[in-house]
Amino acid sequence: MQSMWFNTTTSPFLLTGFPGMEKAHHLISIPLLVAYISILLGNGTLLFLIRDDHNLHEPMYYFLAMLAATDLGVTLTTMPTVLGVLWLNHREIGHGACFSQAYFIHTLSIVESGVLLAMAYDRFIAIRNPLRYAFILTDTQVIKIGVGVLARAGLSIMPIIIRLYWLPYCRSHILSHAFCLHQDVIKLACADITFNHLYPVVVVFAIGLLDFLVIFFSYILILKTVMGIASRDERAKALNTCVSHICCILVFYVSVAGLTFIHRFGKHVPHVVHVTMSYICFLFPPFMNPVIYSIKTKQIQIGIFHLFSLPCPKARLIAV
């Protein structure tokens, strides 16, 4: 009996690609690979530009670098197992590797929410108190905010992931995705998982929802300040500095809300829809964030033109 217990708890988990579409995995992997490469190139280029261009050494762009690094982290965390399943049908993953992957995926999702909140704070200070902006958001303060965002995310996720190591797994070892998620793993445990069910709900409400509400109310105050500016051109200029950030907020929270909605209320929806939504949630924000900032931020545009030695249409950019 003891030997049987040992075998069931140490058997590796089995990852799943697109159920019922196994013969098309190689074809499905093509758009995913293109998305992964685009994310790596887009966010990698942003990081390189911000590091290399002294004109981008400002709090706004430091926070953008944090966002790009977070998006790269999410991509590099999920990409190996996804491509391993789709290309090589390599489905087995050990418990330790699975729990570690789940930890980084969930932690980085909270980091992204925290970085978006920090970017909202940056815009709030820049518009509400522009004369003290440089004194409030010093390099030291930016570093402290970044460390705080990382620590909050890492510590908040740690309790549920640590507990996974001590739970027995005596049910089917088949996971629902090509990467490990806490909500997937916990379904396979044959023990009391009340804590692992309730704690994530608390985290989502205490962190995710609170971040969104703070961002929302900060923009109400920003809008109130902008509307008080006499010059129409100055109002447009102030709002234009927020457009990129607002787009990134919408991309992130709409993706998360869509995935949550499908998981909660789409029980009768085909499983392939759940899987597809999870890929959209993890790939769409990292893919779109560099695109948004490249289109809407003239300093990033100029940096890209210089990086690739292209003629820079300065007159047009300045007029934007």
Automatic annotation (TrEMBL):
InterPro entries: GPCR_Rhodpsn, GPCR_Rhodpsn_7TM, Olfact_rcpt, OR51/52/56-like. GO terms for molecular function: G protein-coupled receptor activity; olfactory receptor activity. GO terms for biological process: cellular response to lipid. The chain crosses the membrane at residues 28-50, 62-88, 100-121, 142-166, 198-222, 242-262, 268-288. Keywords: Cell membrane, G-protein coupled receptor, Membrane, Olfaction, Receptor, Sensory transduction, Transducer, Transmembrane, Transmembrane helix. GO terms for cellular component: plasma membrane. Its main location: membrane. It is found in: Cell membrane; Membrane. Belongs to the G-protein coupled receptor 1 family. This is Olfactory receptor. It comes from Marmota marmota marmota.
